[in-house]
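@channel anyone free to eyeball this complex?
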Amino acid sequence: MISRKILLKDEDIPRQWYNLAADLPTPMDPPLGPDGKPIGPEMLAPVFPMNLIEQEVSQQRWIDIPEEILDILYRWRPAPLRRAVYLERFLKTPAKIYYKDESTSPPGSHKPNTAVAQAWYNKQFGIKRLTTETGAGQWGSALSFACKLIGLECKVFMVRISFDQKPFRKIMMQVWGGKCIASPSNETNAGREILQKMPDTPGSLGIAISEAIEAAVTDSSGKTRYSLGSVLNHVLLHQTIIGLEAKKQLQMIGEKLPDIIIGCAGGGSNFAGISFPFVYDKINGKKIEIYPVEPAACPSLTKGPFVYDHGDTAKMTPLLPMHSLGHDFVPQPIHAGGLRYHGMAPLVSRAVHEGLLTPKAYPQLQCYEAAMTWVGTEGTICAPETSHAIACVIEEAVKAREEGKEKVILFNYSGHGLMDLSGYDSYLSGKLTNLELPQDEIDRMTAIFASMPKPNQGKTGKW
Amino acid sequence: MISRKILLKDEDIPRQWYNLAADLPTPMDPPLGPDGKPIGPEMLAPVFPMNLIEQEVSQQRWIDIPEEILDILYRWRPAPLRRAVYLERFLKTPAKIYYKDESTSPPGSHKPNTAVAQAWYNKQFGIKRLTTETGAGQWGSALSFACKLIGLECKVFMVRISFDQKPFRKIMMQVWGGKCIASPSNETNAGREILQKMPDTPGSLGIAISEAIEAAVTDSSGKTRYSLGSVLNHVLLHQTIIGLEAKKQLQMIGEKLPDIIIGCAGGGSNFAGISFPFVYDKINGKKIEIYPVEPAACPSLTKGPFVYDHGDTAKMTPLLPMHSLGHDFVPQPIHAGGLRYHGMAPLVSRAVHEGLLTPKAYPQLQCYEAAMTWVGTEGTICAPETSHAIACVIEEAVKAREEGKEKVILFNYSGHGLMDLSGYDSYLSGKLTNLELPQDEIDRMTAIFASMPKPNQGKTGKW
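replying in thread with the prediction:
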């Protein structure tokens, strides 16, 4: 009988995270300060607790997962590896399609893998309260959930337009004890300034990040820190449990290493989670095609240059070495809110630069078509972000059929779409368009970046 | 290491449903026609396909599950049996609390277990289209899902107030290809008549049932049938896969038979699913306490008499032998929409009458408190219906602590609450009240029933 679900026991959960930084052919470039010089880890101390900063700069290959974190993850981990037999049949492909089901976490996505770890390390460091921003709401929900279980307060600045359009996401955070505030708000200088100038602004992720960081660093008790849901090294580290589990699960059924690995990529965390443990194998000589998939409307990897850029619109973060469309780039309103980020995780950017990953970009309509094919075969409703991975999976499975090759495809089913049904509604009623990025916008960005520092030019040092 | 998740492999899925009717100490009473005489199975033929009517009247203990149905159920079944270790710790109880997680189906509840079976049998019978009604939307979603995978059209009459208040449920049905119409509608005589008298009516489940049955029986092609999501014998039969899996899973870890089994009960289907395979053991001498849990606002088992009553407000169904609050009873607007049904499945009603089950009723606020305890320990957001089971679980676990007994408690986690967040919002903002049923209303019902036929008085024959 075909194994449709490959399930690990609790005792088989991975006990260490994998740190790709230890194995990259060239070392990571450090972040730069406003003066263009590398910053030291201590510069981040007002924003993050020291134990997470240590992980951020670590070069150690394996980092132990504390038992207390595992005890929380056991609520839904190890997560199932499933085989998409119904999609395989429909496509008449000889390819075997496996997917890691990250939709089984209580908030419904991969985000809690790092939310739980970050909340736990903050708690260990004596922190009482976390602040963060959220766009569509996945990350805000995940951090609220983690803080509830660990015993921290959580304040989420949610982009006003999403706050108004997605009242259920806000309630979800409140159920887990999170305080969810529309951004811009009157709680920060950054928010007040913008409200004064533009009282009717719909807000933006850039503004929300500025407010969340300000709320953390200005708390005079010193017991508040900021938490980020993607992009940074320690966030990606925590997500590698996804790929490590998948590797064990494939071994369990005697399956070979995947020929193709696919994940959608916004800030890069779910993609890194599924792929980095296999990038290790690729570095060590195995032949694996690895595809980060981004929206054509926000193509940082496929169209953006590899530069130093800020992580937020208001330039509160250091300059990070990454593929970017520019910190003031405002992506068009595609429904995959989690993929509407101007930059890309430095580790993912670096791995692309080294030729280890081959980024792809798909337009919105093709992704919803793929999601509907999934609905009609596997039966579940995926997140709009996840549909980007599925679009690529379908393309590769069809190619395998044409080539007559029994390839093994692994992808990350990063989350369900039960809180994102309005996007499906727009698609079904024919209102959606592709919203691709115009070439002149890309040219404008490229010109701006020409004068900025470039990673890996011998000018930058080490952390 | 404690087994937090007890997982069956696909090949261990039960291959037969269990039919409690074969083992009840006294046989089931037949439904009665408008003349008060037992109706024959053929009377149901315009409404249901003959293969399902055969299951409805079957006295056979075990009924084979067709391989083609299993092939669809494998998408999420066997479902996990989980142990609520975090709740146990919080309650400091020596009880072991196991729960069957039915929230893992694509529509998020136990409903697809019978939706898939019903759609498949209809398809086998040559039917092209199913009609049904839905209140909160769980059942309409499940039937749309099943029809999508099996290749039937599906038309859902959704109570207008829910249609307007829960736009996401409607979209969910549409994603699975279901056609969702606000009821009362202009598509049926029943709907048109009501709209003419009351153009602004919020609708009711009774009206929606009338419309769905009319739409099925008046289709001149003869290729349309009606589908019901609870109450009837064949619906409960299909749900027994829940308890049969749970029994295997408990055996797998060497656990004894449960001391206590709990499920929420609206029409009775999820409760029957978890409990009936164990009612078999109770009939055969094992000591098990089995609690169907209903809302205090709609207490058909604890306050309603065991009588013959119609399944719908418009009296389109035969008289069914059941506990009922009266077919014209309109329950108060508690958030557990799936428990707002005036009657109770005849099989459950009969088992209560035989002393095999001990019904309990809980007020709304206690149920939301229980749900919030669950959120803070196990971490997931349960459906408002499921919270009724959890309220009873917590009470029993605390009792076990007080008695110092290591009891085994099993309950059915019938669904998640991600589409029901507005109820949590009302609770958290202090707007909820208990909405218990006033005694004078019960007295009024009891008086009406005094003149109606009673089950089990020797006047009724056999099917």
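from a first look: Residues 239 and 270 of chain A are 7 Å apart (CA to CA).
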